[in-house]
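Newbie here. two chains, one complex. Structure please?
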Amino acid sequence: MANLAFIGLGVMGYPMAGHLRSAGHDVTVYNRTESRAKAWVDEFGGRACSTPAEAAAEQDLVMICVGNDDDLREVVCGEQGVLQGIRSGAVIIDHTTASAGVARELFQLCAEKGVGFLDAPVSGGQAGAENGQLTIMVGGDESVFDFSRPVMNCYAKMLKLMGPAGSGQLTKMVNQICIGGLVQGLAEALHFAKSAGLDGEAAMSVISKGAAQSWQLENRHKTMLAGEFEFGFAVDWMRKDLGIVLDEARRNGAQLPVTALVDQFYADVQAMGGNRWDTSSLIARLERKREE
Amino acid sequence: MANLAFIGLGVMGYPMAGHLRSAGHDVTVYNRTESRAKAWVDEFGGRACSTPAEAAAEQDLVMICVGNDDDLREVVCGEQGVLQGIRSGAVIIDHTTASAGVARELFQLCAEKGVGFLDAPVSGGQAGAENGQLTIMVGGDESVFDFSRPVMNCYAKMLKLMGPAGSGQLTKMVNQICIGGLVQGLAEALHFAKSAGLDGEAAMSVISKGAAQSWQLENRHKTMLAGEFEFGFAVDWMRKDLGIVLDEARRNGAQLPVTALVDQFYADVQAMGGNRWDTSSLIARLERKREE
């Protein structure tokens, strides 16, 4: 069993850290809002610290799952950050969805201190975190990946080293690009079905085994038809991810016309008050325009 | 066993008519290019006629699978069309992907002559036609559907009555709208992966079980990465279908921003000489711009 720290007990980190504890690891936690760290310790045992540096001291691995690039830099490089406490030879595994640039920057900074760093964003959402069934896309060194793999397997159903530092983040971006165009296409299809007076549910059932089949069609069409969006992956988070995607594409020269357009559509959804709605709420934007 | 005619022995109609014959039905065929009708008779037996009217005479059911609205009007209402030969009480099943408007128009015209009419476009492509595994979306009267169902089951894996005349065509449109946005999102994702220096194959394998999963991702990502498009559902046919979709949306008020954009992208692919390429060739357009 390894000595671990887990930093960032949000909707993802809280259950992920719980899986590590349930597997028998010694887990020390840190969370910006202290009451949540205390709740975690009350539920799972272990120890809560008041700074990332303190939590990282004497650990074999330090997991991080925070909000964005700035949060990540703060908990790693801040005055009381992980790098102030972690010992040489230890490993940082970052589960935040962040830019490939910050992943490469922190990889380099860690390497100079003899610390391993993996960028390891996840997909599978809150349910995946709770069931320990996440997909984890990893960038970094192979030896560090091999060392870290058994621990990540506590909450992974799919775990893959994609290449050097930043490659995990780039793979997560590929995932979000697929989803953007796919969900907008599905939203337009359901909106068209309603406009045409078709039974949308019957239409989805008849096309669901062919070339239009997708996870989103199977798992989201009913709630999209019903206009229910108070669940799932929030529009605010999707916009954060698409912002990272579009920045990266500006650098690497990729053309993403539909992804950029869908990002703007999500801005419309935010303007409708849908910041916390699931990404499938793109249909609400189409339906609204018609009803105004 | 029923007496049947099959009109239009293209890549879809030829094998579909074959399945009817293999099931023991008496099948009479008509095809605009006579040599193809002769080839069919050489392979399956039966009888070839020189006009749709002649083929339709004395039949219980007349299947049609031609190119577009104009072809369909010609074989049904032309001087030597089906309606000149068909007897009252018989049924026309139209497998053409056409407009909902022409379906309603022909339904009405047939009704006045005591002939049943179903709009019954299919999906599943050439492979689905050859394996007898098509999805068929039907519009028309329930009693006519029930009468026709056993015959269509000779080449269907999924067969559903969607509502009154035109509903089959509208459902096919919903299918094509889903595919347009989905394939463009996938093309952007793969193009981004290449631009970012990622292993696209590895990236697809790691995201293929989650929220980005789709039939298109599973069945098209390898050929898209390899730039192979000489197969599948041709861009020219997709543009025909999207033209029908956008016309219908103009009438019913549905907003289809990404579908309209993807239709324009397919116009770019046509301009690149990709008229016969598979719909997944949207990625070729993104890659071309970079290489120019």
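Moderator note: The two ends of chain A are 60 Å apart (CA to CA). Strands of chain A lie at 3-7, 26-30, 47-48, 61-64, 91-94, 116-119, 122-123, 134-139, 156-163. Thread marked as resolved.
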